[in-house]
Amino acid sequence: MKVGDRHYRTIWPTSDGRAIEIIDQRWLPHEFRVVPLSTVDEVATAIRDMWVRGAPLIGVTAAYGVAIAMLGDPSDAALDSTWDYLHETRPTAINLRWALDDMRNLLRPLPPAERADAAFARAAEIAEEDVELNRSIGRHGLTIIRQIAASKPEGEPVRILTHCNAGWLATVDYGTATAPIYLALEEGIPVHVYVDETRPRNQGAQLTAWEMVGQEVPHTLVVDNAGGHLMQHGLIDMVIVGTDRTTRNGDVCNKIGTYLKALAARDNGVPFYVALPSPTIDWTVGDGVAEIPIEERSSDEVSLVWGRTADGKVMQVRISPDATEAANPAFDVTPARLVTGLITERGIAEASETGLRGLFPR
Ligand code: MRU
């Protein structure tokens, strides 16, 4: 997407093709910083410490991490240890395992001398595929926005609530939950996006809001707790969120707080949609609440908040007593029964095994 006058993706190979550059998302919206990653350790740090984040982008970054590892040591042992090392960086987003498996399955049968080149080529392909998946999700999601727009008085915006950041910064480009929004605006359908701030790390306030400003999407930032109130007062027409892992039964794991939005949506008859690229489906898991590992992150993310002071300094401040301990489960699971539909690259599926198998039979 555009940053100023320039088109950016979130990740790209360096000109010599032996490393990558990423947008370091920790500094947004205050500073736009691009940093190179040229070792597996740097890639692991960037994923773990959320310089890059969002399930699809985590997967693509890990794929490039494998390629970088193969430059130094293309042996079977290095392939396995890189898989283990990168896999433990973020336990919930399933795209990470998907991308690591894809890379290992491709590289294992190749002679070691050919592995690095093949790995960079495949990582680039996965990145391209991600862009295409998001475009397709956009086209299918657009049909829902069109229907809602048609049911409203002419010129009234379709009001969409979103949680966390499932926009282009969470993917390679376009985003999953945001792709239908961009297409709707291109088609001239007025849209207004309500952006949940998304405590503790504020991905909504810092990243989604920054994206909306950059692409000139009408939007309003709200605190996480405002969603139920807005829905009760008829101010939200639909919810679209992303997902870090969706089970074969259609249970949706996403950023902490998503479940509460789904409960409020159900109580108020507001449709609740999930934008779901197929690499985010975990076919090995049925019951999301019981089986998905939920990442527990540092309590500092709850107790300390990043912001910019009036004199332009970007810094962290503490908001709770020093002696207060904080818990920080990073994701929750929304049961399939609360999900109106899964917007995939192949169409909109009911949130159930039958619905998903209908679009993805194998
Ligand atoms: O902890 P994060 O910022 O990586 O969490 C991101 C989300 O929860 C997104 O909604 C999800 O990865 C889908 S992104 C297309």
From TrEMBL:
Q: What is its EC number?
A: 5.3.1.23
Q: Where is this site: Transition state stabilizer?
A: C164
* Gene Ontology biological-process annotations: L-methionine salvage from methylthioadenosine
The molecular function terms of the Gene Ontology recorded here are:
S-methyl-5-thioribose-1-phosphate isomerase activity
In the UniProt record, does the keyword Protein biosynthesis occur? no
Q: Which residues form the active site?
A: D244 (proton donor)
One Pfam match: IF-2B
**Keyword Isomerase: yes or no?**
yes
This protein is called what?
Methylthioribose-1-phosphate isomerase
Q: Where does this protein come from, organism-wise?
A: Mesorhizobium denitrificans
Q: Which gene encodes it?
A: mtnA
